[in-house]
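Record 1 of the preview.
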Amino acid sequence: MPSGQVHPPPGSVGPSPASLDDNTALAKLSSAAPVLRASDVTTTLADFAIITFAVDPDRLQRLLPPEFSVQRVVIDGAERGLVSAVPFRDLDFRFQFAPWLRFAFGQTNYRAYVLFRGEPCVWFFGTSLATPFVLVPQLLWRLPWHYARMRFDTAWQDERCRHYHLHTTARWGRAAVEIEGTDEPAGSLPGFASEAQTALILTHPLQGYFRRRDGRVGSYSVWHERLRLRRGIARRARFELLEELGLIDALSKPHSVLLQERTEFHVYLPPHIVAG
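->
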């Protein structure tokens, strides 16, 4: 199979140039946002980054519940899975029932790109949150979220990131990141057949799943407009969680780095438990 084509595992129905009009699917996802309810959240994300690694797909598969399968891609003739660390700063995290009550904190999501019932989505290994209020989602929804201290040092000129430094200290999810931005748009990345397919799978997944603290599988969804990401160059990208999972090591280089200064997300809450 040529490099640049998404390769679903046998029996799956993953998107590919032959089976799915990616531009149409992406346009549908980017259309008007679903109606927000009182329990839903709107938040402005600053210093948004997607730092992705190509990993052994079989090793990644062993970390997933059996009903999930790795979204496999072919890079330089070899099958790979993809995982990302996604750090950003929430500037004004607010529930619809109390929009005047706003919270600001750093956050990093750790996710893998997977298929569930034939549909592309993400599997969350967990999230680092730089606020004591992390206890609320931990206790209320049993989310695999963990307290961390995060220090961001970033500078932007127009849409280009001049530098992006992140240092995270925590019992779970320590990280050290040094990135230099470029003017190059995200475009089509290795393992994907087109810019639309890259966005559909890597930068625009709206449904996420996770292992709750009680062992059951949970899910929640988000919505955002199509991102306007620029490529970055990683001078340093250490993520202790991904190393502990055996997916990368200290010398691993990212598959890609994508950056955007600011965007707005809607988060549809509360999460729900997925029936077996």
